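Agenda item 2: 2-deoxy-2-fluoro-alpha-D-galactopyranose complex prediction
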Amino acid sequence: MPTPSFERLFGRPAAVTASAPGRVNLIGEHTDYNGGYVLPTAIPQRTQVELARRDDDRVRAASANVGSAVFEYRLGAEQRRSRWTDYVQGVTWALGHEGFRLGGVDLRVESRVPLGSGLSSSAALLVALLRAFRDAFALDLADVPLARLAKRAENDFVGAPVGIMDQMACTLAGDRQALFLDTRSLDYTIVALPPGIDLVIVNSGIAHNHAKGDYRTRRAECERAAEALGVAQLRDLEPSDLPRVMALPEPLGRRARHVVTEDERVLAAVRAIKAGDVENLGQLFYASHDSMRDDYEVSIPEIDLLVDLGRADPDIHGARLTGGGFGGSVVLLARPGAAAAAAARLSAEYGRRTGQRATVLVPDGAGR
Ligand code: GAF
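Presented output:
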């Protein structure tokens, strides 16, 4: 059944349409809340928000992804309910706390970023919502403060203890433009992906949820490791610190080793991309995956299988789990021109072996 349009839902046309893309992190995983480096890029799938102002202080919100139900609340009376509408409430709550004056709105969301896929459906929704409010109320809100506000909504209202990578990526990364971000200073540069870097993204079909325990546990382990090593954040460690890192009690040593080596891999990946060295970039992908699987322990057997199918495929240079882990998606580097065929091969074999349905997100439209 087609989901109702804005006009059908609210009896008038939308005044503003805004959107934001999902992101795929190329490398630099679980480094953002340790003050380290990340390298995400935008994916073609986007989340769109249509919105029209109202004359009162009510917000009415519907999502084409969940049907035709309309959720309603009053500005200033936001309350967490552990539903998708927490993201809408989180945005008006965060804008209100920041001193922005809003009025009521009707809004409709439609997302092509699959939920819980490790491709930042949450940040895409938050950034699209903030852009829609910014346009509708002419808010004086530049991109980086907008990304910080999205993080505040997710951390302090939704209750997911995520870092700043996704909100910055959904705000600033573009098509074939990776965001090389220092998550401590928020200094960034845009790194263009040269021809020859052909990405494949396959969603394992196994969803994660970062508001749940495992992500939180990893964060806490990193904080304990930093404290035991006498640094403010794991970002402050160098590869030469690895002997004392590995002297920490289990599993803190391995957790910290992942972060220290992953930061180095991000720097090496930026050099490889600038040099057009796909082979080297691919090896960095595999090394990152191994570190997430063995040291950080955020992979699952289904994701390892997708990566291993990549290792065995002559058209794939590298593969790794992308995003927070415990499910989600894999990003692979394919030989130029071979991405769609390799993606179809991999997802079909994955389905045969696991009984799970993998979806190819990039190349967009492949594998359908
Ligand atoms: C999730 C979080 F939202 C990010 O902040 C980041 O920590 C990522 O997991 C792991 O790199 O996407």
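Discussion summary: The longest helix spans residues 252-275.
Owner for follow-up: CH.
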